[in-house]
Amino acid sequence: MAITLTERAADRVRDFMNREQAAGLRLAVRPTGCSGYMYVVEMAKDVLDQDQVFESHGVPVVVDTQSLKYLDGTEVDFARDGLNEGFRFANPNVAATCGCGESFSL
């Protein structure tokens, strides 16, 4: 089981970590949207007992055990496209995404 960041994503997360004094990047999945699930990305203030921690390019990636079954094998990138920027997910578990790109199904 693993979750990885590209170097570009790791650089962006390090910037956030330095500003917010965070323990790492927290990734999760929650039920919502037109396709069923959406990604939750936030800074991890701490690591809980039910969390798994992966290190990628020196950045701790914190994932709760429930979300891990949906995120296992995911690579997270950070991209800019014109005025839009954000994290992009290459998740091998996703069967389909909605038209707006905000949610996915398994």
CATH topology-level name: Hypothetical Protein Aq_1857, Chain: A
Order of helices and strands: EHEEEEHEEEE
Number of strands: 9
How many domains is the backbone divided into?
1
Task: Give the strand order of the largest sheet, numbering strands 1, 2, ... along the chain.
Answer: 3-2-5-4
Q: Quote the average pLDDT.
A: 91
Q: Label the structural class.
A: alpha/beta
CATH superfamily: HesB-like domain
Provide the descriptors you would attach to this structure in a database record.
106 residues; alpha/beta; Hypothetical Protein Aq_1857, Chain: A; four-stranded mixed β-sheet; three-stranded mixed β-sheet
Overview of the structural elements:
A four-stranded mixed beta sheet has the order 3-2-5-4. With 106 residues, the protein is an alpha/beta fold. The chain is built from two helices and nine strands. 24% of the residues are buried. The radius of gyration is 13 Å and the shape is globular. It has a single domain (4-105), classed as Sandwich (Hypothetical Protein Aq_1857, Chain: A).
